[in-house]
């Protein structure tokens, strides 16, 4: 009998687990309560990046005079933007559903719940339940925005990230609470659309987890665009009137605007899954997993945001693939565990910010000897051709062996360019390997081989 592989949650983690297991010969059931593609496609990454691309096009037009064109002023068509996002989501949902069906995955619409380690109960929208048997269960139900008790979220003026793709109306003045990755992306997006923006930053630096040199480039860009920064302030209350909102901060300052957007983290979707009764250990709602993404119950795995590891769509997909390989016995072959330290990530601001592996600040904090080489894009012919010489490439390597340990890129297309350093970090390549590679000229990637040289 084929291995019965049941997945609860159809985001990137669940989809990839399902398609990989199906390719490996399992009989796969994927349970999704909403729309296949998950929050990643419908509520988080894709709509946010689609809006950022529109904002980026507007910024490019504002800069057009530097390209020898007459100054162009772009105007946002909010309804056209809404249609554009819906179009992208529909196409992606169609392609994910098509991929799952073509692999023979049995898609079941409904909410899944673990009854015991070998049975999953599915409740459809009509309330009818069915039970499926499982040799392996994968939990991949994702997460949702955290809403503190002081925030009267109404989806109209007080928004979470999920109300913002796009919001009901273009805010005239948006207050963004939280200056992590999500917060700064929204600041960039709405200031590009022409909204006034205030950012509440609880520390003294935006992107507190990032290299200060990288964060400084972004802060300069924000200040240049007229974004107000409330540094060292924690929001602790929101007052809403018919046409305005005020955010009270713990240092006595008050930010006033038309809308407020909360970007203060997420919480896992682990309630109502029957996990504790099934013996699955949780930590603050996240499923405790080992290096194979296996929970405390041997045949139950967790992937994606629910696993409490790196909350990235790319990581979720990789976990899904590794789980299927492990559950179906492929780990005995050339199977590598995920090294979360080597996951590349990007922030889609303008300029983009991307990094992978060891950060210079972390090496310094650990007293680790590293070689840091940095090349500014102002030295790149392609950056000058593009009329955007902002930013730099930084490569961190081992001074004794030359092995590439990490890197940061700030500048145009940083999210694409970082892939080169990611491959070097994962494959254990040396700076010499990058320096010896013949890149295209003129191209921004040349800054990578220059930094490695
Ligand atoms: C604003 C924002 C922007 C982001 N941008 C990026 C980005 O650019 N790049 C990136 O890599 N990551 C990004 N992320 C993170 C990324 O969205 C998540 O890491 C990713 O969605 C996690 O995938 P997942 O499969 O764990 O969960 P999800 O994508 O959340 O999917 C979980 C699915 O499970 C379903 N589900 C939940 N409970 C049940 C149940 N009981 N039964 C059946 N189905 C259920 C849900 O309906 C959902 O479809 C962003 C996040 C946010 C908030």
Give a concise summary.
With 453 residues, the chain is α/β, with parallel strands linked by helices.
Which descriptors would you attach to this protein?
alpha/beta; 25 strands; FAD/NAD(P)-binding domain; binds flavin-adenine dinucleotide; single chain; 3 domains; Enolase-like, domain 1; 453 residues; 31% helix
Could you please describe the fold and organization of this structure?
The protein is an alpha/beta fold and 453 residues long. It has 12 helices and 25 strands. A hairpin with a 4-residue loop joins strand 13 (235-240) and strand 14 (245-249). It has 3 domains: 4-145 and 268-327, FAD/NAD(P)-binding domain (3-Layer(bba) Sandwich), CATH 3.50.50; 158-264, 3-Layer(bba) Sandwich (FAD/NAD(P)-binding domain), CATH 3.50.50.60; 351-452, Enolase-like, domain 1 (2-Layer Sandwich), CATH 3.30.390. The chain has a 5-stranded parallel sheet with strand order 3-2-1-7-20, covered by helices on one side. The protein has a 5-stranded parallel sheet with strand order 9-16-10-11-12, with helices on one face. Residues 8-14, 31-34, 38-40, 44-45, 48-49, 111-112, 140-142, 161, 182, 269, 273, 304-306, 311-314, 316 line the site of flavin-adenine dinucleotide.
């Amino acid at each position: 009998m084929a291995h019965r592989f049941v997945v609860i949650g159809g985001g990137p983690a669940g989809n990839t687990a399902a398609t990989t297991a199906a390719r490996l010969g399992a009989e796969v059931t994927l349970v999704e309560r909403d729309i296949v593609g998950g929050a990643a496609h419908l509520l988080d990454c894709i709509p946010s990046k689609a809006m950022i691309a529109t904002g980026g096009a507007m910024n490019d037009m504002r800069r057009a005079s530097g390209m020898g064109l007459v100054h162009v002023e772009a105007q946002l068509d909010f309804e056209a933007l809404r249609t554009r996002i819906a179009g992208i989501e529909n196409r992606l949902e169609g392609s994910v559903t098509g991929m799952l069906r073509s692999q023979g995955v049995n898609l079941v619409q409904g909410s899944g719940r673990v009854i015991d380690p070998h049975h999953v109960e599915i409740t459809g929208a009509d309330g009818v339940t069915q039970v499926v048997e499982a040799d392996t269960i994968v939990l991949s139900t994702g997460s949702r925005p955290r809403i503190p008790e002081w925030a009267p979220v109404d989806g109209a003026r007080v928004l979470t990230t999920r109300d913002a793709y796009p919001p009901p109306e273009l805010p005239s003045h948006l207050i963004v609470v939280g200056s992590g990755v999500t917060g700064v992306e929204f600041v960039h997006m709405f200031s590009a659309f022409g909204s006034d923006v205030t950012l509440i930053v609880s520390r003294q630096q935006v992107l507190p987890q990032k290299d200060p040199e990288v964060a400084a480039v972004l802060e300069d860009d924000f200040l240049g665009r007229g974004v107000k920064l409330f540094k060292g302030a924690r929001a602790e209350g929101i007052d809403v009137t018919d046409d305005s909102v005020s955010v009270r901060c713990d240092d006595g300052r008050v930010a006033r605007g038309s809308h407020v957007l909360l970007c203060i983290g997420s919480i896992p979707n682990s309630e109502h899954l029957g996990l504790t009764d099934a013996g699955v250990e949780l930590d603050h709602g996240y499923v405790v997993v080992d290096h194979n993404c296996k929970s405390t119950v041997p045949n139950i795995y967790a992937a994606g945001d629910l696993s409490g590891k790196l909350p990235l769509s790319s990581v979720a997909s990789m976990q899904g693939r590794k789980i299927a390989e492990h559950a179906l016995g492929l780990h005995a072959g050339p199977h590598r565990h995920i090294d979360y330290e080597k996951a590349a990530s990007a922030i889609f601001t303008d300029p983009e910010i991307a990094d992978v592996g060891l950060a210079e600040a972390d090496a310094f904090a650990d007293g680790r000897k590293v070689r840091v080489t940095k090349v500014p894009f102002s030295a790149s012919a392609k950056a000058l051709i593009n009329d955007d010489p902002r930013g730099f490439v930084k490569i961190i390597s081992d001074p004794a062996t030359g092995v590439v340990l990490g890197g940061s890129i700030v500048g145009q297309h940083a999210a694409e360019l970082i892939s080169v350093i990611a491959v070097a970090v994962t494959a254990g390549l040396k700076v010499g390997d990058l320096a010896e590679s013949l890149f295209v000229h003129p191209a921004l990637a040349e800054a990578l081989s220059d930094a490695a040289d």
